[in-house]
Amino acid sequence: MADLKIGFIGLGIMGRSMSRNLRQAGYDVTVWNRTAAKMAEAEAEWGAKTAASPKEVAAHSDVVITMVGDTPDVKEVVAGEEGVLAGARPGTVLIDMSTISPEATRELAGLAQEKGVAMLDAPVSGGDVGARNGTLSIMVGGEEEVLGKVRPILEVMGKTIVHCGPIGAGQTVKACNQILCGLNLLGMVEALAFAKKAGVDLEKMIQVTSQGAGGSWALSNYGPRVIKGDLDPGFSVRFQQKDLRIVLHEAERMELPLLGTATVQQLLRSVQAHGGNEDGTQSLIRVMEQLGNLDITPKT
Ligand code: NAP
Fold first, then answer.
1. pTM for the model
2. Which domains does the chain have, with CATH numbers?
3. Which of 4, 16, 182, 191 is deepest in the core (most CB within 10 A)?
């Protein structure tokens, strides 16, 4: 499979590591990034080829992967004038691994199909560490036969690869993942506030509850960081809000009330209003501290 030529668009926190892993697995990788300095780094550090546009990447590739920011960004790099579809040959496979709207994904797949390009949506979970270590969870939507062709490529980047259903289903499952992340985050900060107000030791509370039925990834990973005052991003408030916007938009379309998710989104809006857009999502603790008039994170 390593003879397939891969194009990779978007060398951000995630894309940089994912494309490097593909190159190191022996694939021929051509990259494009909006900010050219990141392409130069990929060329110098691990031997990526570079291109002048997504269109040019597609012209050199059998499989094109996009890992950019939000829905409009994917639309631009895929369907824009200089986008992937302007340069792709029939038979090319396009894999979008960004987290975007399932509805927009289906629209893009329709445009791709008109050019003879098969599209998969393959958003990921596992963060920057998962991207670096090639251990992402990858949620795939699209035709199973197409996934079969590119599975070895996905296996370089992830350790759990699940076909979730037709095109858009990967993004739908990713939206479920973000609902869970948001509500577990809220559970973590409320438990910390309750423990603090009641005067029990926060570390002991985390130690024991994280092993029981109330445990969560948020509690095990963010809880200890919050009580040390570490609010640096793993995953930024900006990105979590993008993802919750996608969730709530889809929920509105389906006429599904999601009370908990909407509450988390509004509380994170307060983090943003206080200048925390680029902080980690665990900075939700700041809002909890204000609401409860208590201090949990050490103040510098
Ligand atoms: P990031 O570090 O902000 O990088 C975003 C990348 O997209 C950059 O290469 C940026 O180019 C490019 N980009 C953005 N808008 C563009 C546009 N309009 N045209 C062309 N390129 C554009 O983001 P990231 O953390 O790698 O995340 C990428 C995707 O993965 C997002 O959809 C995110 O939600 C998802 N994700 C992230 C994580 C995580 O932990 N970070 C986890 C799971 C999923 P420039 O270099 O020019 O800015």
1. 0.95
2. 5-165 (3.40.50.720), 172-292 (1.10.1040.10)
3. 182
User: CA 241 to CA 291: how far, in whole Å?
Assistant: 20
Q: At 94, which amino acid appears?
A: L
Cα 10 to ligand 1 centroid, rounded to whole Å: 6
CB of 127 within 6 A of ligand 1: the answer is yes
Query: From first to last of its 300 residues, what are the pLDDT tens digits of the chain?
Result: 568 999 999 999 999 999 999 999 999 999 999 999 999 999 999 999 999 999 999 999 999 999 999 999 999 999 999 999 999 999 999 999 999 999 999 999 999 999 999 999 999 999 888 999 999 999 999 999 999 999 999 999 999 999 999 999 999 999 999 999 999 999 999 999 999 999 999 999 999 999 999 999 999 999 999 999 999 888 899 999 999 999 999 999 999 999 999 999 999 999 999 999 999 999 999 999 999 999 999 876
Q: In whole angstroms, what is the distance from residue 102 CA to residue 247 CA?
A: 10
At a CB cut-off of 8 Å and minimum separation 6, what does 24 contact? 46
Q: Does 14 contact ligand 1 (Cβ within 6 A)?
A: yes
- Of 96, 72, 101, the C-alpha closest to 84 is 96
